[in-house]
Amino acid sequence: MIILKNKYTSIYLTLLLKKNRKTLMHIHNLSQQNSVLNTFISEIRDINIQKDSMRFRRNIERCGEILGYEMSKYLSYKKTSIKTPLGTCSIDLLNNDIVLCSILRAGVPLHNGLLNYFDSSENAFISAYRHHENNPESFKIIVEYLACPNLENKTLILADPMLATGQSMAATFEALKPFGTPKEVHLISVIGGQKGVDYVNREFDNNTHLWIASIDEKLNDKGYIIPGLGDAGDLAFGEKLQQ
Hints:
This protein has 243 residues and is an alpha/beta fold. The chain has helices at 7-20, 37-45, 53-72, 107-117, 167-176, 194-203, 232-237, and strands at residues 26-29, 77-84, 87-94, 98-104, 122-131, 140-147, 155-159, 162-163, 184-193, 208-216, 218-219, 225-226. The strands form three sheets. Strands 1, 4, 5, 6, 7, 8, 9 and 10 form an eight-stranded mixed beta sheet that branches. It has a two-stranded antiparallel ribbon with strand order 2-3. Helix 2 (37-45) packs antiparallel against helix 3 and helix 3 (53-72) packs across helix 4 (107-117).
């Protein structure tokens, strides 16, 4: 028990707690406002529509385009003079050095959607998957393949369509650290579980933004989002033999 002797001690402790409290990341949940994004989310969730793998991939790509558009409002711009056939005009153009990194394999359609809008960005790819040992309800994240440019002082966009536990995002970011310190970090996901959102909120710095299309309440015993949509990688590219 802490006994406060006077109001000045109370004020001092309050300020100390505020100083030591970690500032949380910025979370942008696009489902809080209705838009055409709802259509694409409904189709990737629908057990009948999602069976069309080409349509599933395209809908994930569309989600990436919308999430990327919303994210672009928070990037840096530079006024630029453009010459037209009839004169000149001034316009603010994107001024970020962007590196777009997706987690294989489920992240490929999402990566393509983002790349449609940030087509001059550099690209990185990393494999991160769950490895179940003896207990199917417990797993660890294995990171293997990695191809990445220099990240120093750049804008890193880290894309993974499903944010379930948040461990894959955190493990991927940890694996990228030897390539430099980004100026800012943006996490892009289509569907997340609240547990995963809370996890990355604790693990990432306060200059990080999470852009997500929808957040579900819970995970099942195997760490899958409920109601979610199933396995995004399998739906996009076919079932795998590895577990």
